[in-house]
Amino acid sequence: MYDLCVIGAGLIGSAAARHASLQHNTRVCLIGPEEPQERSLGSSREIFGAHYDEGRITRCSDPDPVWATLAQRSIDRYRELEATSGVTFYTEAGCLMAGTVQGQFMSLTRDTVTSHSIQHVFIDSELLKKRFPYLSMSNTDEAIYETTRAGYISPRALIYAQKFVAMNNQCDVINEVVCKVSRDHVDGKSYMSVLTEEGRTIKAQRVLLATGSYTTFKDLLCTGTEPEVTLCPLTVAKVEVSEEDAKRVKQMPSILYYGHGAPDWPTKYPRNASNLIGVYVLPPIKYPDGKYYIKLGNFADSVSPRLTTPAEVKAWYCGDGISSLVTDSARLITAMTPGIKAKSFHGDQCVILETPTGRPYIDLVHPGLCVAIGGNGYAAKSSDEIGRIAAMLVLRGVWDSDIPAEVFKLRLKPRHKTKSNI
């Protein structure tokens, strides 16, 4: 019998498994399917992950001080994890938090970098154009520039590093899909039973659910309830650029932008209710196909209806996203980086699990069952600390963080009996 079974082998689950495996005399297993070779509606595959990519922005600065703290703790362990695993996943390219002067996004971010002593440089609109001549920004924009402890990570490589260290510490990795979790009692003692689609039964003293968007589609809590969450589909555009252009802007940082945009940006690009453009941009990254891509994603509050069924989630992952948004995003990339020629572009999709609080759920359902879900689109960079807190909570029953546990409290609602299960 395992001391802990972690279900969900994504960013949070793999981090939790590593931290749990580092505890003395603790038997751990990590269960979850590997990334599929292809995404197809005709395949039997039903489980997909948001980490199937080579680029996620990482930075300490954030309008939300909670996310800033989680990021700081995680980023501080990146280099140690790289050294221990032998896997390189972090590129310290810096991060530019930019937007309209004195807008809410910039004001809150400025407050956080000050309160959290985050090393940064404040850049006004004039200096912004001089410092980053390859970017087209508005005269009404300003920026906070993190030169260190920021840039981007490869989520694929980060998961590989977490798993590598966990397995070196005798964690068993099981590449299967869980279909049921139950709490059993024998001779006055309770334990958890985990059943996989392949028919394997795994017994553990405790279970940690890091099952992301699929948590609501399976009755994994065994309580007749489900987490109060929303599934948000996200479309991104990847614009192929030449190796020459990629080298020319090799100093380009990751960018988060929230503002009115520059005059030469596409006028019909989607805006939120406050008439603001919200996007994130990653610098040119070399992908497994040998090509360089600049990636742009739209913040989730301005586009796309939410998903409610497993069939909708699968169709989204296996589809083409919103083609018009992909085209508009590709045009925006070329407008933001004038002088860089787009060789081609295509879209990609993932699903974000949103919580009402905008923070992750890290909480005990009961002493034998814990959840660590709800990345809200921000968890990749902070996944190591989220996984660590969850692992310590479920193993020891103690809250090992100076962020109050109440911040991450799980909210439940009655489970929809008519919801289609996977």
UniProtKB/TrEMBL annotation:
Start and end residues of each FAD dependent oxidoreductase domain: 3-391
MF terms in GO: flavin adenine dinucleotide binding; sarcosine oxidase activity
Keywords tagged on the record: FAD, Flavoprotein, Oxidoreductase
Endpoints of the signal sequence: none
Keyword Transferase: no
InterPro entries hit by this protein: FAD-dep_OxRdtase, FAD/NAD-bd_sf, MTOX
Cofactor: FAD
Protein family: Belongs to the MSOX/MTOX family.
Protein name: Monomeric sarcosine oxidase
Organism of derivation: Mizuhopecten yessoensis
